[in-house]
Amino acid sequence: MKKNISTWKLFVRTIRVMGKRSVLYLTSIVMLSASLAMFGVFSALLMKCVVDIAPTGDMRRLIGTILAIVAGGGISLLTYRFFCVRYNVEAKRVYGVIYEKVLDLEMKLPYAYYEKHHSGEIMSKVSFDLGRMGDIYGSRLRRTMTPFLQVVVFLVPMFLLSWQLTLCLVAVNGVMLAIDMLMAEPMRKVSRSLSGINSQMTQRLSDLLQGMEQARMYRAGAQTVQSYVKENDTYVRKSKHNIFFTALLSSSSNGFDLLCMLVFLLLGVFFVQQGYTTLGALAAIYTLYGRFSDQFLELGKYFPELIAYLAYAQNIFDFLEEEREPQRMAVFGDGGSPDMAVSMQDIDFSYETAAEQDGLLLNHFCMDIKQGECVAITGASGCGKTTVSKLLLGLYPIKNGVICIDGKSVSDMTKQEWRQKIAYVPQEPYLFYGSVRENIRMGRLDASDDEVMEAARLANAHDFIVDLENGYDTEVGERGNRLSGGQRQRIAIARAILKRAPIMLLDEATSALDNESEQLVNDAMKKLQRQMTIVMIAHRPSTIALADRVVEMG
What we know:
This protein is α/β, with parallel strands linked by helices. The chain has helices at 7-16, 21-53, 59-108, 111-116, 119-161, 163-181, 184-210, 212-217, 219-273, 279-320, 385-392, 415-420, 436-441, 449-458, 462-466, 485-498, 515-528, 541-544; strands spanning 342-349, 362-369, 374-379, 400-405, 408-409, 422-425, 503-507, 533-537, 549-553.
């Protein structure tokens, strides 16, 4: 849920992400800004030195002063370069930290989150919002702080040279800055809107890419394209608003730049004639004022942009506050059977938040499975078979009851320890982009090639794999689309076998296969019987016939 917090609090939170290193980061910005400004000050002093001393003919004084100013300028440039490098290192570091936090959260979100949110929305967080939040550290904050700091540095010598003239110039530039600040809030709103539209566009594009066959065969596919085009048009319109505000900032800044220059010339001539300042001081102020005015213009331009980019940071913070999956499951009551491979006692569960008994999908559900037993869970559609598999995998918290896996209560295990004991084969297995060998080895990353092939043999996959173009090194394509459904299923079983978990859970693993593929998968299951505990959610008679026992769910 999005929260509306003040811009200042949001900015402070953005900096606090860096922890103690924020001091080094901010110090680097201050030092690189100040040293760059000091180089401009030394340039102005050089101008004053030439104008005031040269007419006197005192060459020794002139040369000595010039050498001192040049040395000071050189030190300023070296200081600038050193802190510029430190700044860039810290900016890249914090972006990496945030990126890791977002990816870490994506792996720890409750399973229900992915059922309620489109994958395109999550992708948009990483590709759009996170990138722009990274820009705050990489450029937007520096571009806002540097003009301000340089203005402060420039003001010191300018006030010393002629406080009257400087005060007038500051007043004119202050009016310009106030007008530019009026653009901050509209730009922030546009940025929030662009972020939302981009998320919707990413969702549409993801649907099209993953459902290309259906998109081409059904009118809904064309409607999805039209929706994407419509949202893209909206994005373009909103982008035009953003461009309009940016152009307005630029044009107002240029207009005020011309106005300030005219004011400076008129006031400069007046103050010299009145004896308030010298021609050398005026030349120095003129040299500084060009830089001073530029920094004022940049401050008026980049501050609203920083405010706009903070909207993306708020999106990321909102995402990072999503509830994480608990590492341990709570236990409600007694009755587990620790000597069983799988024991579920008095399980109550509902996908809804209501706790009424008539709203429970599972009501006091019980099931015990012995070590090495092969059990088929059957029942009508919607009775809760797949829900049982999700509970065994720890994807949802139970409302009541006890679950024991491999003789141990799940409350005494972390989710990682729990899931290491189960190898899972879903109805539609996911193959990652890569080779057949890489996909099987995901079951156990340290497995040797011989172990990979042995797992493939047990899964009845070895023969078709060696007949592929490059054998085990054949690329499977995105989601395994270069292989048939039966081939993908057997590779998934090989991956599960390689994991060497004591329990294998198959959720309708043969329901979408033809008779030949189903027979090959069933033959693979026969090889595994007595080697591990097998829990099959099934409805095909031939698959159910493999089981030692059938659990019928009503």
